[in-house]
């Protein structure tokens, strides 16, 4: 079963624009992670945010977490064609760090030049 | 350094056949995870190992699926009497150890097609 649900399912933007993807989850979490998947590089870890954190930055990525709403968002600023990929949020099964990851269905991002 | 590798990259088999999928984790990683990804879906957890033992196999869909990791390194996912519904990309991941905030590194996957 899927824990997270990403929204939107698909997003198309122009290079230079910002892209925002949202993730909602169902149960208590220890942390939430975002992954990117494209055909060239497989599934790659982007960023992890702990349940006691509200915001985290990594380069052009900004992740927020609202545990009261059981939701997270991923913002990619100044997008590039190379950002074209599917993006997934993932939480730890049972809410315990280091156990299996439960992924959402993903958001497919297309960035055109 | 070398990442997680999986072989074969593609496997086509007939319904009812037996298949084995192999995963070579990053050297020194004690935790190993298997996931399955169907088209348009996110990866779905199957089983994970801490060392040689299966710490959680609750994601295996039925008893046709089995995985081993006899020496705590390479793992093999075995599927008996394959069905068309088993067609998917099977992903393997490894991390330094389970039970902590260690990143999971994914392999490129094995695309299994059951005809």
What does this structure look like?
The complex is a heterodimer of chains A (113) and B (115). By secondary structure, chain A is mainly β. Chain A has one domain (5-112): Immunoglobulin-like, CATH 2.60.40.10. Chain A contains no helices and eleven strands. In chain A, strands 2, 4, 5, 9, 10 and 11 form a six-stranded mixed beta sheet that branches. In chain A, strands 1-3-8-7-6 form a five-stranded antiparallel beta sheet, with no helix packed on it. The radius of gyration of chain A is 13 Å and the shape is globular. Chain B is an all-beta fold and 115 residues long. Chain B has one domain (5-12, 24-99): Immunoglobulin-like (Sandwich), CATH 2.60.40. Chain B is 0% helix and 48% strand. Chain B has no helices and eleven strands. In chain B, the strands form two sheets. In chain B, strands 2, 4, 5, 6, 9, 10 and 11 form a seven-stranded mixed beta sheet that branches. In chain B, strands 1-3-8-7 form a four-stranded antiparallel beta sheet, with no helix packed on it. In chain B, strand 4 and strand 5 (44-50) form a beta hairpin. The model of chain B has no long low-confidence stretch (mean pLDDT 94). Classes of the chains: A mainly beta (113), B mainly beta (115).
SSE diagram, text form:
The complex is a heterodimer of chains A (113) and B (115).
Chain A lengths: L4 E3 L2 E5 L4 E6 L6 E8 L3 E9 L4 E4 L2 E6 L4 E6 L8 E8 L8 E3 L3 E6 L1
Chain B lengths: L4 E3 L2 E4 L5 E6 L6 E7 L6 E7 L2 E4 L8 E4 L6 E5 L8 E8 L9 E2 L3 E5 L1
Parallel strand pairs in B: 2-11
Antiparallel strand pairs in B: 1-3, 3-8, 4-5, 4-9, 5-6, 7-8, 9-10, 9-11
